[in-house]
TrEMBL record, chains A, B:
The keyword DNA-binding applies. It comes from Kibdelosporangium aridum. Pfam families: HxlR. This is Transcriptional regulator. Gene3D superfamilies: Winged helix-like DNA-binding domain superfamily/Winged helix DNA-binding domain.
Length: 135, 135
DNA sequence: CAGAATCCTTCACGATACTG
DNA sequence: CAGTATCGTGAAGGATTCTG
């Protein structure tokens, strides 16, 4: 078939786009990192307590559903950013801890967090100005 | 009414949670920053070209819908991270540029991007190991 | 060119219930 | 305690059409 339907062209454009993105190695990880639960878990685990139990994390990130918590923890474990350790007590004890790789990312994330805290007021002021000017 | 329904308790718990989160100033900004389009726009604008037109951005971030692009640009402008300049040519020309505030965040984001590129292989290896061990 | 407005889909996420 | 499994929904986001 020489001619292509609009749907086919769209499909190909999508593929070409994906291929292009795949050639940009940072993109995949960037998408994964750009997740608020990832940021919060990394922040929690990089804090004062080197390792935390599931229930501790659950409390620390108050508001997270266990589904999202488990899901995010799994993906972080899969990527080698955290370790999951099961201690066969009764009931079972599970602890999570940053790997060296995870720690290195935590450092950077911490910078972002600091930036947010440092410039929060400035941003709020900017928003007020914008809103009044576009009222 | 002295007693509360489960729905009411949930609503209150949600408010309490929101209040708690509001007391953490970094949280709001963190959520906004933890967005892949934000990261990509900041990366694009912080690159070689100091200012970019709407269409340039649209091409550079191939795959982004104009809805998401416009929406994200607006919020960044509102927060004072970028400026929007309209030049009344025919047709109209609109350029976007990082503010000093936006530039400071860009620096940090750039670190994250570099991290992602540097550790991409390691992460992919970790994923393979995880997948084979959990096959 | 640079959007605004609308419709429509999907899927991310929360709520709930169950288990080793 | 630390999850897994299932279901239902709302809201994010894409496609499309229209405009100054």
């Amino acid at each position: 078939m020489a001619t292509k339907t609009a749907a086919q062209k769209r499909a190909q454009a999508k593929e070409a786009y994906d291929a292009f993105m795949a050639s940009c190695p940072s993109r995949q990880l960037l998408d994964r990192i750009s997740d608020k639960w990832v940021a919060l878990i990394l922040a929690a685990l990089g804090g004062e307590s080197p390792s935390m139990r599931y229930s501790e994390l659950s409390r620390r990130l108050a508001g997270v559903s266990q589904k999202m918590l488990t899901q995010t923890l799994r993906s972080l474990e899969r990527d080698g950013l955290i370790t999951r350790t099961v201690t066969p007590t009764v009931p079972v004890t599970v602890t999570y801890e940053l790997t060296d790789l995870g720690l290195s990312l935590h450092q950077l994330m911490y910078g972002i967090k600091e930036w947010a805290e440092a410039h929060m007021d400035e941003v709020l002021t900017n928003r007020d100005n914008y809103d009044t000017q576009h009222a």
